[in-house]
Design a protein that fits this description.
about 210 residues, mainly alpha, 6 helices, 2 domains, Ferritin, flat
Length: about 210
């Protein structure tokens, strides 16, 4: 009887050890699969980061060595900044004159933006989407002010300064760019930017600096 009990015990223990070994093998296989997936994900992420870095490097080299693409990218970013500020004038300006000016200038700046995008696509240049946060500081200052005369004045000051910078950008590059088509676009756009500046400067003078 004792021998039978011992044999039964040994049989049961063998079964337990067999199940345990099987579970360990399955766990090891599952861990290996998880490790392989993790490695593949890390590799894919690294490849994407490297790809982005390569593109950024190529764009940087292109900008450094190509005055045409350099201007187009800068003009696109500045134009997007002005559009953000102009939209804030439409949304928050208390003066009808201000809102009317903003509406008119938005149409002109959208036309300029479309022209830059069309030109960039034709030449294979990469335009930045957005303004890299260039309007953030001005918009934060405006948002801290109560809507009304003070808000309007701050907005007019920002637009006056922005259009002055745009005139300088276009003037400084009209003789630097190589492509006659781009040069013609710059020369053709300058009168519009100057008229915007004169309009904002007139409002600024009327409000008092």
């Amino acid at each position: 009887m004792k021998n039978k009990s011992t044999a039964l015990y040994i049989l049961l223990m063998s079964g337990v050890l067999s199940i345990s070994a099987c579970n360990d093998e399955q766990n090891n296989k599952a861990q290996n699969v998880a490790d392989n997936i993790s490695v593949k994900i890390d590799t894919a992420v690294a490849d994407v980061k490297q790809g982005i870095s390569n593109v950024a490097s190529k764009v940087g080299i292109a900008l450094a060595g190509n005055p045409d693409s350099n201007f187009v990218v800068k003009a696109g970013i500045d134009n997007n900044k002005e559009l953000r500020l102009l939209q804030s004038g439409m949304d928050n300006g208390s003066s009808k004159e201000l809102r009317d000016h903003a509406k008119m200038m938005i149409a002109d700046h959208k036309k300029l933006g479309d022209g830059l995008k069309e030109y960039a696509a034709k030449k294979g240049y990469i335009l930045i989407d957005g303004d890299h946060g260039k309007a953030d500081e001005e918009l934060a200052t405006l948002n801290r002010k109560t809507k009304g005369d003070k808000w309007d004045k701050e907005w007019v000051d920002a637009l006056t300064s922005g259009h002055k910078d745009a005139i300088e950008l276009f003037e400084n590059n009209k003789d630097k760019v190589k492509d006659p088509e781009l040069k013609s676009m710059i020369i053709g756009t300058l009168p519009t930017i100057r008229s915007h500046y004169d309009m904002m400067k007139g409002m600024q003078d009327k409000m008092g600096k």
